[in-house]
Each structure stands twice: as C-alpha cells, then as structure tokens.
Amino acid sequence: MRRRGGADEVGVGTTVGVATALDELKSRGSALLIVGTVPESVYVQLSARLLGDGPDRRRLIVERRRSPERRLESVDRWTPEWTRVFRCQITARRSTAADHTDVSGGSRRTDRALETNSTTTPSLPDDEGSESVAETVEGSVADLGTAVGDAIVWFDDVAGGLDPAELRVAFDCVGPLLSEHPRQTVFRFLHLLTHQIRAVNGTGHVRLSRPLDSDPVRVLGPLFDAVVELRLDGTEAVHRWHFRDAAVSSEWLPVDRIA
Questions:
Q1: What distance in Å separates the CA atoms of residue 143 and residue 123, rounded to the nearest whole number?
Q2: Where along the chain do its domains lie?
Q3: CA–CA separation, 247 vs 24, rounded Å?
C-alpha cells in the first residue's frame, strides 16, 4: 500500500490494488470527494471527465453559478430526461428544526420531481444548452436535499432503471453549505446524497476546495468511496485517488487521464 506522503513518493505494489478498486467503483454506485485548493479551471477539467461522454449518460449538475462551457462540451442531449442543472440559492439556518430532520425528502414523485417548499424556477428554452434545462432552487438545505433526491429518483423512473454509471452527478455546493450551516447538518446532507446516488448505481462527485489534510475533509471523507486530490505540478494539473475500502492510493496522474 502506498504511504500518503509528499509529491515525489513512489507507489510500490499498488497497481493491481488501484485497478481492482477502480473496476469495483465502475461496476456499482459510487461517490467521490474532490479536494484540493486549485484554480476553478482545474476542477472544471476533472469534473468534465467525470461527467462522462457519449449519448447514454444522464447528468445532474448542482452548482452556484453557470458552468464554464468546457465542462459541458460532452453533453449533447439538452432535455430534462437527460440533463438537469440546478442553481442553488440556499438560506442559512443555524440551530433550527431543519438541522434535525431528514434533508432528503424521501418521497417518490415522478410527475413533478421538484414539488417542494422551495422556489424552483425553470429557465425558458433557448439555444444556449445548459440554460434550457437550468432551474433555480431556493430555500433551506432541506429543500435542496428534497429537490436533488427527487431528481435522482425521477431519472431512474424515466430510464426504467438506470444502468451502472449511467447517471453522473456533480455537486459543487459543499463550500457554501459549510459556510452557512453547522458541519453536522452538511454531514447528514452528504450522507443522504451519497446513499441516493449509490441506490441507483450512479456515479457522483462532490467538490470541497480544501486540502486533503484539512479538518472538513477528515470529517466528510469517510462518506465517500474515494477522495480525489487535485494540485498543480508546475503548470500541469494532476490528481491522485485515495480509495477508502481498498486502502490504496494511485500515483499522481494528469487530470486528462482518469486513474
């Protein structure tokens, strides 16, 4: 097993373990935590890779602002059955009843995937790709959890059952949630989110722009199947994978190459 040390470390005897761990993640539902204090463009590059390419991918993107075009270059089906984009505007609630309730919603609603207490405003169709499927989700963290959970269930129902890794989820809002809510609330939110993604054999990645050895990563990391660490090696964006169950890490790899 590789020791998790400096950038010049050399992995010994990890090739088989890493390959096996990756195959396992690809064959079932999985959730990844993307960490590292890097420029937005570096995360966007990796996120685009993880969202996948090809016409058979369904995608749910939860973000604070409009994604750069580079992230969405592989998306070619701009209809709600295949692609949905949520722009989250979540209000702060500290020490309220919402901090002690189920933030996932938990109901199966296929007629209106976003029938929640939040204000959800679909954009009018246009020729700008993501804007034709973008919706604003306003309200509490519980409202956001309900909207995301219902959308995942809706994708599964529309597909008649999702194939492994057919659904790709990107969630960019952990940083804002941590700044507005107690860590315990965010932990419960992510616990439910990762469970929902795995339940439909999806693949999700969640961004937390903090160092690997930071306290938030230490607390939230165990919720995920792997933690993917980003950094700049000079001018090149590189990443490495730390697999929870396999207890191995990959070598540093260019971001345009998934381990």
A1: 19
A2: 29-254
A3: 13
Other CB atoms within a 10 A radius of the CB of residue 17 amount to 18
Q: Where would I find the H helices in the chain?
A: 15-27, 40-51, 141-159, 174-180, 183-199, 215-220
Residues in contact with 179: Cβ distance below 8 Å, sequence separation at least 6, in sequence order: none
Distance CA 18, CA 24 (A): 10
pLDDT digit string (tens) for 37-63? 999 999 999 999 999 887 789 999 999
Interval 195-229: pLDDT, tens: 999 999 999 999 999 999 999 999 999 999 999 99
Task: Name the burial class of residue 71, with classes exposed (0-12), middle (13-18) and buried (19+) by CB atoms within 10 angstroms of its CB.
Answer: buried
| CA nearest neighbour of 248 among 257, 238, 240, 258 | 240
Contact yes or no for 217/206 (Cβ under 8 A):
no
Q: Is 230 left (phi over 0), alpha (psi -120 to 50) or beta?
A: beta
Locate 255 and state its tokens: 């971001």
In angstroms, what CA-CA distances link 51 with 60, 90, 206, 211?
Answer: 9, 24, 12, 23
Is 2:9 a contact under the CB 8 Å cutoff? yes
What's the whole-model pTM score? 0.80
| Interhelix angle 141-159/183-199, nearest 10 degrees | 0
Q: Which residues contact 146 (CB under 8 A, 6 or more apart)?
A: 103, 104, 105, 116, 117, 118
Class assignment of domain 29-254?
alpha beta
Tell me the three state secondary structure of residue 44. helix
Residue 125 is classified by DSSP as: P
